[in-house]
Amino acid sequence: METTLPLLDEVVRIPSPCPTPQSLAFDGEHLWVGSWETARLYGLDPHRGAVIEEQATPGRPVGSVAVGDELRIICSEEDDSRFIRRFVPGHGFKNEAIRCPDDTGSFLAFDGEHLWLSQRYNKRVLLLDHTYQPAREIAVGEEICGVAWVDDELYVSTWWGRDRGGCRIARVRMNGATPSVEWLLQSPFAAISLARDGDRLWTNDFKRNEIVAFTIPR
C-alpha cells in the first residue's frame, strides 16, 4: 500500500452540541450525536446546528446507525458490557437490549437489510443476521473507529497509531467470498464514527468537539 494518501475532502464543519461526540447517525433529515462524556443522545439539524431532541442513554453511546425511522445504538453499560439498543425519535429508548457478540462492539452500519457491527480491537466487521448472530466476518487488519454502508460497499475509518499514519479511510469491496480492502484517504484527525448523507460522510472530530462532513471517494 502507498504510504501517502490524499487528505479527505472536508466540505462542512459544525460545532458539536455536546462534549466528546462519539456515536453518529444520519436519518435522512437529522444527525444523531451521542456523547461519551454526558451519556446523552442529541438530535441535531445539520443546517442550523440546532438541537431538536435530547435523551439520556442507557450507558455511554459508542456507535449508532439509522434503520428506517429508528436508530440502533451500541451502549457501553456496566463493566463496559456492550449492548445494541433501539431508539425511536420522539419516543425514546425501548426496553430490549441485545448483547453484542463476544460482549464487544463499537460501530454499526446498515445495508438496507442487515446490521454490520465492527469490533475495534478484533479488527473485524461482523454481518449480523436477524437474530443478531454473526453470519459473516470480514477482517480489516487495523483498529476500526467507524463504519458506513455506501451502495454495495462498506466504508471504514481506521486508526493505525500516530507512528504508523494516524487515521485512514478505506472501503471494503464485497468481491464474493474474498472481500478486498482498498485504502483511500488520510484524515488529519481521528475520524470517530461514519454516517452517510447522500454523496458525503459525516464523522466526529471529537478532540475539537466538532462534526465534519467530507465527500465520499469513488
What does it look like?
Helix content is 0%, strand content 58%. The relative contact order is 0.19. The chain has a single domain, classed as YVTN repeat-like/Quinoprotein amine dehydrogenase (Methylamine Dehydrogenase, Chain H), CATH 2.130.10. The mean pLDDT is 94. It is globular. With 218 residues, the chain is mainly β. Strands 1-20-19-18 form a four-stranded antiparallel sheet, with no helix packed on it. Strands 2-3-4-5 form a four-stranded antiparallel sheet, with no helix packed on it. Strands 6-7-8-9 form a four-stranded antiparallel sheet, with no helix packed on it. The chain has strands spanning 10-15, 21-26, 31-35, 40-44, 51-56, 60-67, 70-76, 82-88, 92-99, 107-110, 115-119, 124-128, 134-139, 143-150, 153-159, 167-173, 180-187, 191-197, 200-205, 210-215. It has no helices and 20 strands. The two termini are 17 Å apart.
